[in-house]
Automatic annotation (TrEMBL):
Gene3D superfamilies, per database record: NAD(P)-binding Rossmann-like Domain (3.40.50.720)
Keywords assigned by UniProt, alphabetized: Oxidoreductase
PROSITE patterns per record: ADH_SHORT
Key word Transcription regulation present: no
Domain of life assignment: Bacteria
Lineage: Bacteria, Bacillati, Actinomycetota, Actinomycetes, Streptosporangiales
Origin species: Nocardiopsis lambiniae
Alphabetized Pfam families for the sequence: adh_short
Family that this chain belongs to: Belongs to the short-chain dehydrogenases/reductases (SDR) family.
SUPFAM superfamilies assigned: NAD(P)-binding Rossmann-fold domains
Protein name, as recorded: SDR family NAD(P)-dependent oxidoreductase
């Protein structure tokens, strides 16, 4: 006997969806869940695969062609657009923007913008829904995550503006995952400044199900965190930014005193500014 779907997910059955970053951790899992729920899904990703169109979302023409092909494969009807494509380079926010900073803005912000714009005619026809994945780090300042934080804060502003101008005809939800161990953190690990164990961890499933529930809700929720702790954190970060900055500064000081990031070249300036042991001269 087949178990009936929860009521809040039944509306998804038979819908048509596009998912960006569909070959990645979040995207691949979301595609699988949506298909299980009876959704027709086409993915977009730099890495093409069965059901996933190869598309670099930093390229205007590839986005136009990729979205047009996806909508065509879906029979010209689009109900749902889910954004996952993103990068998270490690940078020193006090240095001039480098190629990694430009990539974060191009992928995380402008890529989201490009794909949404290309899909907008189809979404307006169906009065569809857009789910934009931001991050709790869009409101929490942690060392070396500046490019990611700035781009994701910009993504939340984009979602808010989209809701203000198009919310009468489409639903817009912003989802705020916490720290999830996925390949997006490979860059910071390689640089020696990974956040593993430094902030509360969430699971891939937390994010995927938050997105799916938002997509299936009768009315598009405005802002959604992935967990109860994430919801509390989002409230703190957004409504008490001064307190958040004080807590983050205190935590960073403790980490540096314990030698965190001591072997990372990018962190030497931060250690020096905090006068932490990692940069203190040794006695002769």
């Amino acid at each position: 006997m087949t178990t009936p779907l929860p009521r809040h997910l039944r509306r998804l059955t038979g819908q048509n969806a596009i998912v960006t970053g569909a070959s990645g951790a979040f995207g691949g899992s979301t595609v699988a869940v949506l298909r299980h729920l009876g959704v027709n899904v086409i993915g977009l990703d730099r890495k093409p695969a069965p059901g996933v169109i190869g598309c670099d979302i930093t390229d205007d023409e590839q986005v136009r062609q990729g979205v047009a092909e996806a909508v065509e494969r879906l029979g010209g009807h689009l109900d749902l657009l889910v954004h996952y494509a993103g990068v998270g380079p490690a940078v020193d926010i006090g240095r001039a923007p480098d190629v990694h900073v430009h990539q974060a803005l191009e992928v995380n912000l402008l890529g989201t913008w490009r794909v949404t714009a290309a899909a907008m005619p189809a979404l307006l026809r169906s009065r569809g829904r857009v789910v934009i994945t931001a991050s709790l780090l869009s409101h929490l300042q942690l060392p070396f995550a500046g490019a990611y934080t700035v781009s994701k804060r910009a993504v939340t502003a984009y979602a808010d503006c989209l809701r203000a101008e198009y919310g009468s005809h489409i639903g817009v939800t912003t989802v705020y995952p916490g720290y999830v161990d996925t390949p997006i953190h490979d860059s910071s690990r390689a640089t020696g400044v990974a956040l593993d164990g430094l902030v509360p961890a969430e699971t891939e499933r937390d994010t995927v199900m938050a997105v799916v529930r938002a997509a299936g809700a009768g009315r598009a929720p405005r802002d959604v965190a992935s967990t109860a702790l994430g919801t509390a954190g989002l409230h703190l970060f957004r409504h008490f930014p001064g307190t958040t900055e004080q807590i983050a500064s205190f935590r960073i000081g403790l980490l540096l005193a314990d030698g965190a990031f001591a072997d990372a070249e990018i962190a030497q300036g931060l250690h020096a500014r905090h006068g932490s042991p990692a940069t203190q001269p040794t006695a002769s």
